[in-house]
TrEMBL record:
Pfam families: BPD_transp_1. Residues 106-296 form the ABC transmembrane type-1 domain. GO terms for cellular component: plasma membrane. It comes from the Bacteria. Belongs to the binding-protein-dependent transport system permease family. GO terms for biological process: transmembrane transport. PROSITE patterns: ABC_TM1. The chain crosses the membrane at residues 46-66, 108-134, 219-240, 275-297. The keyword Transferase does not apply. This is ABC transporter permease. Keywords: Cell membrane, Membrane, Transmembrane, Transmembrane helix, Transport. It is found in: Cell membrane. It is a multi-pass membrane protein. It comes from Jiangella ureilytica.
């Protein structure tokens, strides 16, 4: 328990008797004690997330380069073999090595997710900048568009877009990019409106600075960190959606390995006892998304320390 300290209330003006003092108890809490466990937990989360992400990235980058196994070669004599020394993660229904296919699938899924996250961020930055810069009716129309897009089911809209060009990788990127830009637009618009009202920006405008100078000196440095953080935060969402689209059959072709196509193959193999076809791709997908989300959340808190403290207090 903290030790209470005794302080006197403010004395009124004029003569006061010695018995007129009022005492109250004020607990003195050590500064920062409540924050230490949260900070330590946050650091542990970042360390674990970075370790998992580095391991996964090395697995996806190194294994396809240093193996002679072709993930597309069919070997019907070795189909549905459980994990062993010859096949570390077993084989699928067509006898293809799952260890190599998971590495190749993870590489493809991360690449498509990164492209989709960049597309979403670019669209969100452009829309948010236009809404904040123009203002007025344009701002209202743009924000109504953002609300309307948020009201639509993202996965359903992505399925509709991807099914129009079934099997095309760019259709997956476009379908994810056009359904995840709304939050970026809101953040960028809010940040620009906040920066524009600050005193140093007003001083620059009064001093005769042009719009280009104001944007390059004050507004752009405030938007770029938000855009970079948005890319990281959108990555796990993009990975999940790419996997969902491929699992539903509107993503990549079945012969092209991705985490979604591997999970789609596991749907039929699990009834034949091939549990490893579900466990390893699903575990890889979950670990990758959680690691990226942990790093992205920490970057967001570091870029917005005041909001992070408020979130910790209210949470």
């Amino acid at each position: 328990m903290p030790e209470p300290t005794l302080t006197t209330a403010a004395r009124p003006r004029g003569p006061v008797s010695t018995d007129a003092r009022v005492w109250r108890t004020v607990p003195r809490w050590p500064a920062g004690r409540w924050q230490r466990p949260r900070r330590a937990a946050g650091r542990r989360t970042v360390v674990v997330s970075v370790a998992v992400l580095v391991t996964v990235a090395l697995y996806a980058a190194v294994v396809p380069l240093f193996t002679d196994v072709d993930p597309r070669v069919v070997d019907l004599d070795g189909y549905l073999r459980p994990p062993s020394g010859e096949h570390l993660l077993g084989t699928d229904l067509l006898g293809r090595d799952l260890f190599v296919r998971c590495a190749q699938a993870l590489r493809v899924s991360l690449l498509l997710a990164a492209l989709a996250a960049v597309v979403s961020t670019v669209v969100g930055v452009v829309v948010g900048t236009v809404a904040a810069a123009v203002g007025g009716r344009v701002d209202k129309v743009v924000m109504r568009l953002v609300d309307a897009t948020n009201a639509l089911p993202h996965l359903l809209l992505g399925v509709v877009i991807a099914s129009l060009w079934r099997g095309q990788w760019w259709a997956i990127v476009v379908s994810i990019g056009l359904t995840h830009w709304t939050q970026v637009a809101r953040i960028v618009r809010s940040e620009i409106l906040s920066v524009r009202t600050r005193e140093h920006v007003a001083v620059s405008i009064v001093s005769g600075a042009s719009r280009v100078q104001v944007w390059s000196t004050h507004l752009l440095p405030a938007v770029v960190p938000q855009a970079l953080i948005a890319v990281v935060l959108l990555l796990p969402h993009a990975v999940w959606h790419e996997s969902a689209l491929s699992f539903l059959g509107v993503g990549l072709p079945p012969n092209d390995p991705s985490l979604g196509t591997l999970l789609e193959d596991a749907r039929s193999a699990i009834l034949a006892g091939g549990w490893w076809l579900l466990v390893f791709p699903a575990g890889l997908l979950t670990a990758t998304c959680l690691a990226i989300a942990g790093i992205g959340g920490r970057l967001r808190d570091a870029a917005m320390p005041k909001r992070a403290v408020e979130a910790q207090v209210t949470g």
